[in-house]
Amino acid sequence: MKTTQRALLVSLLGLSLAAGAAVLKTDPAKSSVSATFKQMNVPVEAKFKKHNIVIDYNAATPDASKATVDIDTASLDLGDADMNKEVAKKEWFNSAQFPKASFASTAIKSAGAGKLTVSGKLTIKGKVADVSFPLAVKTEGKNQVFEGALPIKRLAFNIGEGEWKDTGMVADEVTIKFHVVAAQ
């Protein structure tokens, strides 16, 4: 009798876990991550060409969700090959020593219909910060679409060292924007 009860309990536990979050398959061709900032007071938007985004999500149980994002720092495309090489240098992303910037969620909470609040750890250039930001989520056909923006201060992560600490040339405020399309 105990063996039957254990088997039933294990089965029920497996079903309850399966009903939780589910790893979604992100579509890199339809997804984007960019950084928006001002250079000499002119807005600039640059896209990261390489990123890996893993979202474990179920709309019925958002609190059980998780997300991780890894971005190849050398893949930032400013639209000019020389500028792209410059931001990979030690003064900026130091991509040779810190090839990835990453985010790992610590909590995802419902904030109303189609809205979530995401908290987690953002790591850039070896510096780790606790961050929190709003996230919009909607269903489009078989896909889940996640959109959000995370404002940061670049100098808190040592992005722009030496003469580039001067915020008169490149502003300290940077907004990381993302649009992620994923399917189950």
Automatic annotation (TrEMBL):
The keyword Electron transport does not apply. Pfam families: YceI. SUPFAM superfamilies: YceI-like. It comes from the Bacteria. Keywords: Signal. Residues 23-183 form the Lipid/polyisoprenoid-binding YceI-like domain. Residues 1-21 form the signal peptide. This is Polyisoprenoid-binding protein YceI. The lineage of its organism: Bacteria, Pseudomonadati, Pseudomonadota, Betaproteobacteria, Burkholderiales.
